[in-house]
């Protein structure tokens, strides 16, 4: 009985499906091998189904590109935030300058000069600590938002194990999944180099 496919179309589709299945099994096998290096509690949470779903999501390489893009954005954000923190720190590097600015405050006659300077110095120190604390809090919030953005992006891309959460155990699992994806991506890149 002749197939209803024209001019080798079925054979090409079957070959494509066969290549995808082979790639899926290879990715799954590599994931299973990589999982063995993870801590035992994490290994236990990564079922065969989760790894199989992850391998399926990685088939066409899109997830590798998404993860690389997210990492690039994260590195740029971290570099920018670090720069901002260094800038704030350098602005406060010379407390004597801050002290001179604060000394413009009118000194009360009933306070001895030493106590006045001590009070001004303490005020400067407190202002510096407050500004650094506020900067650090802003940095933490911005990094937390980046994590949420990454989780959302990977969830929308259909990557198994990713969803928005702040649960530390789930975050650890997601970080391990990202590490697995990165290692597979590196292996893929090395394999491409070997064949070119």
Distance between the termini: 42 Å
Query: How would you spell out the order of helices and strands?
Result: HHHHHHH
Shape field: elongated
Judged by helices, strands and strand pairing, the structural class is mainly alpha
Instruction: Estimate the strand proportion.
Output: under 5%
Tally of strands? 0
**Biggest sheet descriptor:** none
Helical content (DSSP H or I, runs of 4+): over 70%
Q: What is the alpha-carbon Rg in Å? A: 28 Å
pLDDT averaged residue by residue: 85
Features:
single chain; 196 residues; mainly alpha; Gonadal; DGCR6 protein
Summarize the structure.
Pfam families: DGCR6. Helices cover 79% and strands 0% of the residues. The protein has helices spanning 9-35, 40-45, 48-58, 62-91, 95-102, 113-156, 168-195.
Describe the protein in words.
InterPro entries: Gonadal (IPR010849). This is DGCR6 protein. The chain is mostly helical and 196 residues long. The protein has a domain at 60-195. Helices cover 79% and strands 0% of the residues. The mean pLDDT is 85.
Compile the SSE list and pairings.
Blueprint: H1 9-35, H2 40-45, H3 48-58, H4 62-91, H5 95-102, H6 113-156, H7 168-195
Helix pairs in contact: 1-3, 1-7, 4-6, 4-7, 5-6
Family: Belongs to the gonadal family.
Protein name: DGCR6 protein
Organism: Urocolius indicus
């Amino acid at each position: 009985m002749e197939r209803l496919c024209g001019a080798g179309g079925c054979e090409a589709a079957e070959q494509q499906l066969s290549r995808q299945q082979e790639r899926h099994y290879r990715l799954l096998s590599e994931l299973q091998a990589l999982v063995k290096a993870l801590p035992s509690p994490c290994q236990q949470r990564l079922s065969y189904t989760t790894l199989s779903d992850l391998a399926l999501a990685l088939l066409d390489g899109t997830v590798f590109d998404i993860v690389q893009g997210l990492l690039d954005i994260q590195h740029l954000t971290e570099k920018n935030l670090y720069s901002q923190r260094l800038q704030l720190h350098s602005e406060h590097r010379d407390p004597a300058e801050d002290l001179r600015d604060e000394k413009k405050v009118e000194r009360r006659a009933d306070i001895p000069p030493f106590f006045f300077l001590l009070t001004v110095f303490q005020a400067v120190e407190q202002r510096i600590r407050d500004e650094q604390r506020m900067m650090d809090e802003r940095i933490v919030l911005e990094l937390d938002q980046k994590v949420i953005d990454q989780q959302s992006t990977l969830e929308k891309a259909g990557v198994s194990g990713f969803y928005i959460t702040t649960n530390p155990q789930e975050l650890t699992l997601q970080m391990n999944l990202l590490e697995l994806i990165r290692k597979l991506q590196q292996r893929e890149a090395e394999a491409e180099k070997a064949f070119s």
